[in-house]
Write a structure and sequence with these properties.
- This protein has 3 domains: about 100 residues, Rossmann fold, CATH 3.40.50; about 100 residues, 3-Layer(aba) Sandwich (Rossmann fold), CATH 3.40.50; about 80 residues, NadA-like (Rossmann fold), CATH 3.40.50.10800.
- It is built from 14 helices and 12 strands.
- The protein is α/β, with parallel strands linked by helices.
- Helix 1 runs parallel beside helix 13, helix 2 runs parallel beside helix 3 and helix 6 crosses helix 7.
- Strand 7, helix 7 and strand 8 form a beta-alpha-beta unit.
- Bound molecules: 1,3-dihydroxyacetonephosphate and iron/sulfur cluster.
Length: about 300
């Protein structure tokens, strides 16, 4: 494994490449990654990097977003099967129908969406800035897609904006049931529950802290508590266990695994860099329009 890590590092240098890795990736990827974090952090790093090539250890929409932000760079996704089920829950036709039924309302799309969908939305958001983004629109109503759970959570945080949500969801987070959560909470009444806002509204209502993957990891970093219940994908718990061996983490439910996030191993990163596969391309017109939507988010997030 050490040999593979060294080979990847050597290739990275030779090809002037950076590796961006989402915190749901297999934890071994961190050994070669330049940046590890949540969707917002990774898109900010993609926008900033001076490297010629970006290898995205994540899912398709993330690599596509990096390509839109850096049209002149080579963006590689090690495995083309790494999709996001939630992002695929709304296509352009469905977006147009959603807007037709709810005319003249600003449209916010979660970054977990296709380039085509982004190209016809007003502004993008991630789980860590969704509240700020919706607030920045200063509109009494917004359309929010595809994630119904994140949209509802934003509405609750703001209190004065009607958030009209599309029916999408993340199958992993949505699969955490309120009764499962309350059971774990009841068995561990003094332990804080940290949840991702892609979880169902009732699940989130049991949480002591709600935040993005990085938000959850930062909460643990700052807290003096020794035990935590975590309601998000297992990759976050794997990293927390590695970084805080003296603390204990209870994953709210077994098998909270996003299979498509787990398709990358070190050998896939090596092959991707070595063979320069699989290169992500985005249609020019779509890319220009989607860039406005992403750039507006980055501007508000500064
Ligand atoms: P964040 O990276 O914003 O925490 O979102 C998690 C996720 O589901 C990414 O697909
Ligand atoms: Fe998509 Fe959910 Fe996987 Fe994130 S965890 S990539 S939202 S399916």
């Amino acid at each position: 494994m050490k040999e593979l890590v060294n080979k990847i590092k050597e290739l990275k240098e030779r090809k002037n490449a950076v590796i961006l890795a989402h915190c749901y990736q297999n934890v071994e990827i961190d050994d070669v990654a330049d940046y590890v974090g949540d969707s917002l952090y990774l898109s900010q790093m993609a926008a900033k990097t001076g490297a010629k090539t970006i290898v995205f250890a994540g899912v398709y929409f993330m690599a596509q977003t990096a390509k839109i932000l850096c049209p002149d760079k080579k963006v590689l996704l090690p495995n083309l099967k790494s999709g996001c089920e939630m992002a695929d829950m709304i296509n352009l036709m469905q977006l147009r129908e959603f807007k037709r039924k709810n005319p003249n309302i600003p449209t916010v799309c979660y970054i977990n969406s296709t380039a085509e969908v982004k190209s016809e939305c007003d502004i993008c958001c991630t789980s860590s800035n969704a509240v700020k983004i919706v607030e920045s629109l200063k509109s009494p109503e917004v359309l929010f897609l595809p994630d119904q759970n994140l949209g509802r959570w934003v509405e609750k945080q703001l209190g004065n904006v009607k958030v009209i949500t599309y029916s999408g969801y993340c199958p992993i987070h949505h699969n955490i049931k309120p009764e499962e959560t309350s059971k774990v909470k009841a068995a561990n009444p003094d332990i804080k529950l940290l949840a991702h806002p892609e979880c169902r509204e009732e699940v989130v209502s049991y949480a002591d802290f709600v935040g993005s993957t990085t938000g959850i990891m930062n909460f643990v970093k700052k807290s003096s508590d020794k035990k935590f219940i975590i309601a998000t994908e297992k990759g976050v718990v794997d990293r927390l266990k590695r970084d805080y061996p003296d603390k204990e983490f209870i994953l709210v439910k077994e098998n909270l695994i996003c299979e498509s996030m787990k398709l990358n191993y070190l050998k896939d990163i090596y092959e991707s860099l070595n063979n320069e596969t699989f290169e992500i391309k985005v249609d020019d017109e779509i890319s220009k329009k989607a860039l406005k939507c992403i750039d507006r988010m980055l501007e508000v997030s500064k």
